[in-house]
């Protein structure tokens, strides 16, 4: 079945450092891809999405490009802030009747001042 | 426009008991999905309801059941609770594939 694999954390960075969180997927067809963020004690918030190959999703300085050839959707940000500290989940939307989301295991990002 | 509201926020139950979790969908959203997020893991799909009918189910036993009401709010029921049911339960409502998640219910089974 479809699956998502993302790099394990925690990722610890200093403020203003460059961030990359790797995400690869296995799927039949061409699913839509998402990054969600979860702050402590909260639910999931959609960060960005891409619906087809070569699309770039972006929001709040974060970017990710849908790479069909490498089945990847890596999350990047040029300069992280302490407020970016959270758990980040990569996900794909499976086709069919439910269009359910399949998530990776999450990557904890800790940004130090 | 209100978001997705879940209740209660926290709950402690004893093994073998039954629990009901509630979710109010975002206005206009006719589809609701439930996910289980164990500690340190990504959310796992439990099931989905579309216009009061279940139209998809993940790999969860029948003691996990649900309902969707005419106003599109929803309930998740879990019978015969087990220790491994301890998790954050997330509700997501959607319309045309855009998902809005609630803050979740933290269930602890002791």
Describe the structure in brief.
The complex is a heterodimer of chains A (113) and B (110). Chain A is mainly β.
Question: Any overview of this molecule?
Answer:
The complex is a heterodimer of chains A (113) and B (110). By secondary structure, chain A is mainly beta. Helices cover 0% and strands 50% of the residues of chain A. Chain A is built from no helices and 12 strands. In chain A, strand 7 (56-59) and strand 8 (62-65) form a beta hairpin. Chain A is globular. The N and C termini of chain A lie far apart (41 Å). Chain B is built from no helices and 11 strands. Chain B has strands at residues 5-7, 10-13, 19-24, 31-37, 44-50, 53-57, 64-68, 74-78, 87-95, 98-101, 105-109. Chains A and B meet through strand 6, strand 10 and strand 11 of A and strand 5 of B.
Topology readout:
The complex is a heterodimer of chains A (113) and B (110).
Chain A lengths: L2 E4 L4 E4 L4 E3 L1 E4 L5 E7 L5 E7 L5 E4 L2 E4 L9 E3 L8 E8 L7 E3 L3 E6 L1
Parallel strand pairs in A: 2-12
Antiparallel strand pairs in A: 1-4, 3-9, 5-6, 5-10, 7-8, 8-9, 10-11, 10-12
Chain B lengths: L4 E3 L2 E4 L5 E6 L6 E7 L6 E7 L2 E5 L6 E5 L5 E5 L8 E9 L2 E4 L3 E5 L1
Parallel strand pairs in B: 2-11
Antiparallel strand pairs in B: 1-3, 3-8, 4-5, 4-9, 5-6, 7-8, 9-10, 9-11
Structural class per helix/strand content of chain A? mainly beta
**Low-confidence blocks of residues of chain B:** none
Number of DSSP helical runs of chain B: 0
Task: Work out the number of β strands of chain A.
Answer: 12
The most extensive interface between chains reads: A-B, 23 and 22 residues
């Amino acid at each position: 079945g479809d699956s998502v694999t993302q790099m394990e954390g925690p990722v610890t960075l200093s403020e203003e450092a460059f961030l990359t969180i790797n995400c690869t997927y296995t799927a039949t067809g061409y699913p839509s891809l998402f990054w969600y963020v979860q702050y402590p004690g909260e639910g999931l918030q959609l960060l960005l999405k891409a619906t087809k190959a070569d699309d770039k999703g972006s929001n709040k300085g974060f970017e990710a490009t849908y790479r069909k050839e490498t089945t990847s959707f890596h999350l990047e940000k040029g300069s992280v802030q302490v407020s970016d500290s959270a758990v980040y989940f990569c996900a794909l939307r499976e086709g069919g009747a439910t269009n359910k989301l399949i998530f990776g295991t999450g990557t904890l990002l800790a940004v130090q001042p | 426009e209100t978001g997705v509201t879940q209740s209660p926020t926290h709950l402690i139950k004893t093994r073998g008991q039954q629990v009901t979790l509630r979710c109010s969908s975002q206005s206009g959203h006719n589809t609701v999905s439930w996910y289980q997020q164990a500690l340190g893991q990504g959310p796992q799909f439990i099931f989905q309801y579309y216009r009061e009918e279940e139209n998809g189910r993940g790999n969860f036993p029948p003691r996990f059941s649900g309902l969707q009401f005419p106003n599109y709010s929803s309930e998740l029921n879990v019978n015969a609770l087990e220790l491994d049911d301890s998790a954050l339960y997330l509700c997501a409502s959607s319309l045309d594939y855009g998902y809005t998640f609630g803050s979740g219910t933290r269930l602890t089974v002791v």
